[in-house]
Amino acid sequence: MFKPKKIALVYFSLNGNTEYVAEKIYNTLDDKEMVDVIKLEPIKPYVDKGPMKFVKGGAASVFGTKPELIGYRFNPKDYDTVVIGTPIWAGSIAPPLRTFLLSNKLKGKNVAIFLCSSSGKVDKCLDKLQKYLKKSNIVSTLSLLDPAKGKSGEDLYEIQKFVAAVMESK
Questions:
Q1: Hey, what long-range contacts does 65-68 have (CB within 8 A, 24 or more apart)?
Q2: Of 29, 39, 85, 102, whose CB has the highest number of CB atoms within 10 Å?
Q3: Cα–Cα distance for residue pair 133/70, rounded to 1 Å
Q4: pLDDT tens digits for 51-77?
Q5: Which helix (H) or strand (E) holds 82?
Q6: Is 74 strand, coil or helix?
Q7: Is 123 helix (H, G, I), strand (E, B) or coil?
Q8: Where are the beta strands (DSSP E) in 95-136?
Q9: Please, what CATH class does the domain formed by 7-168 belong to?
Q10: Which candidate, 81, 83, 86, places its Cα nearest to that of 61?
Q11: 0.70 cut: is pTM over it?
């Protein structure tokens, strides 16, 4: 069985769902010292309430914007596994994750993906995301509907299965 030496847990969260899952993933891992958590934050924050949240966030996603991010430490050479998380915006990844993926090539890395949505329509987003990761080894995917709102035992079980798949990947 393969055990990753070092894992980067990279995510963007606007309203807490993706952050909730990232925290649950981190807490499920046995060896916390092997994990670096990287929360992506745009320099110019997104509107997070009201109808403009959907208009501006959706437009940024559809038009493929690449927002500048607050500094973070990440060198792909330091990790053999990268777990990435994003909310789904207009059928795509959130722009801060796009910026991260374009700035950091994950070629040859084991990558696990977790997606949070309100619609459950993940296929389009996953297809787009896989284009950024075509030379990576995708070891596991997880999709959850508004996990921070429901906080269900079923979601926790799915997160545990996801983490197990990450730890057992080769």
A1: 65/95, 65/98, 66/95, 66/98, 66/99, 66/102, 67/42, 67/43, 67/95, 67/96, 67/99, 68/42, 68/43, 68/44, 68/99
A2: 85
A3: 23
A4: 555 555 555 565 567 889 999 999 999
A5: strand 81-89
A6: coil
A7: helix
A8: 110-117
A9: alpha beta
A10: 86
A11: yes
